[in-house]
Amino acid sequence: MNTCFFCKGDLVKDTTTHFVELGNKILIIKDVPCLKCSQCGEVVYNLKTSKKIEEIVKLVNNLSTEVSILNYNNVA
Q1: CA–CA distance from 62 to each of 9, 11, 16 (Å)?
Q2: Which of the ends of the chain has fewer CB neighbours closer than 10 A, N or C?
Q3: How many whole angstroms separate alpha carbon 3 and alpha carbon 19?
Q4: pLDDT by residue for the chain (76 residues), tens digit each?
Q5: What is the CA radius of gyration of the chain?
Q6: CA angle 27-66-62, nearest 5°?
Q7: Torsion sign over Cα 4, 2, 36, 26
């Protein structure tokens, strides 16, 4: 089992909502797969998920909307 870097609690599979500020734009990605600490709530992404988040951020950064809300499963 994986342990949290900060509090040494157990990391369990879960989903989270990821927020990104891009200058004057806000991106919200819902249902992002992660490992979440059962004690402190710290969130950890695996490499595949981190890369996908980066791709989504690049895509949305080119849009002209101020707020974007996406579901990870619909764009992954």
Answers
A1: 38, 34, 24
A2: N
A3: 24
A4: 799 999 999 999 999 999 999 988 999 999 999 999 999 999 999 999 999 999 999 999 888 789 999 999 998 7
A5: 14
A6: 75
A7: positive
DSSP-based three-state secondary structure for 74: helix
DSSP β-bridge partners for residue 71: 30
Length of the chain: 76
pTM for this structure?
A: 0.90
Rounded (10°) CA dihedral 48, 49, 51, 57: 160
AA identity, residue 47: L
Stated as kind and residue range, the H or E segment containing 61 is helix 47-61
Centre a 10 Å sphere on the Cβ of residue 19 and count the other Cβ atoms it contains.
9
Beta bridge partners of 36: 12, 43
DSSP character at residue 2:
-
